[in-house]
Structures are given as structure tokens and as C-alpha cells.
Amino acid sequence: MSIKSSIIAGGGSKNEPFDYYPTPPDATQALLRFLNLSKNMTVWECACGNGAMSKVLEDYGFNVISSDIREDCGYGQSGVDFFNETRVCDAIITNPPFGVAQEFIEKALKDAPIVCMLLKAHYWHTKKRFSLFQSKPPSFVLPLTWRPNFMQERGKSPTMDFQWTVWFDNDTDTKYRLLSKT
């Protein structure tokens, strides 16, 4: 599968090709405060867009590999199809395109010992993803206690709830914790 084919299959929209929604910094900051990861880790942000999440990761002291499928991403290495690439890294932290989130999760779990995906809050509420949850139980499900504003520059109010789902190798006991902005 390639990300380009996800648009044909309905993964993107006419308004947001490749499901491009830059992640507000507070969502990434809340995750990093909770996880308290080693600062000298190499993190791959494989859907970096304009670098919104990558910049926060860099501010926290991580060595960040930033890439995106879009040719005009404006940050990191452009034109990189995550499904056709592998990078040596300690963690993959990203806001995957919604239409191919499951495929992103499955590939990331093969590529890194720590995987963190920003997902819609109801992501796991479907029969179709039950087998993924059962076969690869996350270590944490971390709902945000606020609605991140992905469309701030367009003057739109946030209307969706989000959560981080986090996998650590060899930790399949799923824990549920709430994340706050501060």
C-alpha cells in the first residue's frame, strides 16, 4: 500500500489531500511530559507536514528525522512514502493520516520499539480494529482533556476529541490515563 493510493480509496479529501492537519504544539507537549523519554533518542516523525510536531520534539531535545509524502511539506524530507521507507530510530511519533492510520500503526510497530500515534478519540470503537488491538495491545491510551485546534488559522473551532495511543515493546498491559494541557 502507498499513501498516494489512500486518497483514491477515500483516505483523503478534496480539501485536505493526504489528510493534512498540522498538530497543535500542546498535544505533543502533553504526550512528552507524560512519557518523559530519554532526550538523546532518535525519533522519526514520518508525517511531518509543516514540522509542527517535529519542532516540539526538537525543542524537547530529541534527534528528529522528519519526512512527509507531500512534495510541498515545507519541512524535513519531502516525497517520502512511509510505507516504502525504513529509518533507524528509537521511536516513531506522529499524527498519521486518518484514512491510513491502521496501516501506519502496523508498519510503525515493525520499525520502532516505541510508537506514539495521535488518533481520534473513538478510533478503537469499531469492530474492524478489534483484531489490531487484540494482536498488538497498546501500552497506553491517553485521551486529551481538551480539543486540539487543528484549524486555528482558518478560524474554525475544534469539534473533535483526540487521544494518543502508545506502544512500548513488551508492554501489552493497556493503561488508560488522561492528559491535560498543563
Notes on the protein architecture:
The chain is built from five helices and eight strands. It has 182 residues and is of the alpha/beta class. 38% of the residues are buried.
What would you say about this model in short?
The chain has helices spanning 3-8, 25-35, 52-59, 101-111, 130-135, and strands at 42-45, 63-68, 77-78, 91-94, 114-120, 140-143, 162-168, 175-176. It has 182 residues and is an alpha/beta fold.
For this structure, what is the CATH homologous superfamily?
Vaccinia Virus protein VP39
What is the number of domains?
1
Molecular shape: globular
Number of strands: 8
CATH class: Alpha Beta
The secondary structure category is alpha/beta
Tell me the number of helical segments per DSSP (H or I, 4 or more residues long).
Answer: 5
Instruction: Give the overall pLDDT as a whole number.
Output: 88
Strand arrangement, major sheet: 3-2-1-4-5-7-6-8
Q: At CATH's second level, what is the architecture?
A: 3-Layer(aba) Sandwich
Q: Give the terminus-to-terminus CA distance.
A: 38 Å
The biggest beta sheet reads: 8 strands, mixed
Unreliable residue stretches: 2-16
CATH topology value: Rossmann fold
Q: What is the radius of gyration?
A: 15 Å
| Helix content range | 10-25%
Strand fraction band?
Answer: 15-25%
Query: H/E series, N to C?
Result: HHEHEEEHEHEEE
List keywords for this structure.
182 residues; globular; single chain; disordered N terminus; alpha/beta; 5 helices; eight-stranded mixed β-sheet; Rossmann fold
